[in-house]
Amino acid sequence: MSITLSILYLIATVTFVVGLKMLGHPETAKKGNLTSAIGMGVAIVGTILLAEKEVPTIIYILIGSAIAVGGIIGWIIAIKVEMTKMPELVSLFNGFGGASALLIGIVEFNKNIGVDSSEKASISIIATIIAAIIIGSITFTGSLVAWAKLNGSMNDIRFPKYNLINNILFIGLVAFATYIAVLNTDSAILMYGLLAASLVYGFLFVVPIGGADMPVVISLLNSLTGIAAAITGILYNNMVMLVGGILVGSAGLILTFAMCKAMNRSLASVIFGAFGGADVAAG
Amino acid sequence: MDQFLEFISSNLQLFYILILAIFIGFELIKNVPTVLHTPLMSGANALSGVVIVGAILVMLQSNPEDYLALSLGFIAVVLGIINVVGGFAVTDRMLQMFKKKK
Asked: Phi/psi zone of residue A161: left (φ > 0), alpha (ψ -120 to 50 degrees), beta?
């Protein structure tokens, strides 16, 4: 990595910290958001323009068009949406971030472990990739469910003993992931199995939670997306992703607790209690 | 286990950064007024879009003939930039609403 790019990443990381700090005070919040946005722009442009090796022009064209397409879509959605629909929009965006992390995980799996790899990857690389896939998948489907629920297009669905089912599924997921990492397998089938199981878990995790508790869940999922970004940062040894992701992860977690406290609820009762919309479900 | 210890010792700096960053995140958000919770959540969401840097790296490092990696990378960049641009724009709109109320 060129030294210029490292310095740009350092600047971006500082703007993230300063921006988050300013976002916490009503007078400076707007400027804080702008500060972080500029830092993000610096990191993105720097990454594209200061690539360490020779990159074919076609790839630059592809990256440029992906950014143009996504940027315009994101901008239009953000500007057009009604004020009342903003929390669900945050959830939708968050789901996109999770999906991005999960796609990176799949490509890196193929490159480092699966079909395209020439040598066996170390267990730490496998663990990192698997963690990115799992967390990315959970935030992706979880956020989409939260979005659909706030949207009103999905009702609370509660299976009998859903807590037990979810907890067993979660333990199974962790065991499955550990198994794959220890096995040091190059089996794409196992990886896609894990991917599918994580997607299902993300869905089942959010489905029973009531609409009133949804902002707390969105904040929690947001924190998870940050962790997924940080994990992919470890994969590329990329400091702006690592620190930015961890900042979101820890700040998001504290924010989740603060939101619970403001609602006089504990996080456990939000996740396991699921009575936020119980009367709706019963009716 | 040996591999694990080796991973830690060869990435010791990484762990220092990790732990310090966790504490900074905690400290930054402590004692934030309740009215700012939603904009803050939205702002943090935009920041988590930093994952797009990884998506761009995927594309930069892929072989031009590797259509699978390129198309997955392309989708990842599109989704990531929606997260970033949309996230910051929505946060800005929320905060604007905030100002008028005051």
From this structure: left
Distance (Å, rounded) from C-alpha B88 to C-alpha A127? Answer: 31
Same domain, A32 and A157: no
The minimal CB distance from B92 to the residues A33, A62, A235 is found for A33
Whole-number average pLDDT of chain A: 87
Q: Is the pLDDT of residue A277 over 50?
A: no
Average pLDDT over residues A63-74: 96
Neighbours of A72 (CB within 10 A): 13
Average pLDDT over residues A78-106: 92
From A80, A106, A126, the end of a domain falls on A80
Token pair for residue A137?
Answer: 């998948």
- Domain of residue A204: give its range: 84-282
The tally of domains found in chain A comes to 2
Mutate to test the interface with B, among A1, A8, A104, A259 (most CBs of B within 10 A): A104
Q: Is B71 on the interface with A (CB under 8 A)?
A: no
Q: Is the pLDDT of residue A233 over 50?
A: yes
Task: Return the residue in B26, B36, B50 with the most chain A beta carbons within 10 A, the one to mutate for interface testing.
Answer: B50
Same domain, B49 and B72: yes
Average pLDDT over residues A29-48: 95
pLDDT (tens digit per residue) in B14-50: 889 999 999 999 998 888 888 898 999 999 999 999 9
Residues of chain A numbered 61-90 and touching chain B (CB < 8 Å):
62-63, 66-67, 69-71, 73-75, 77-79, 81, 83, 86-87, 89-90
Tell me which residue has tokens 């990378």.
B73
Give the residue from B28, B16, B31, B53 showing the smallest Cα distance to A17: B28
Domain that holds residue B5: 1-31
- B99 with B51, same domain: the answer is yes
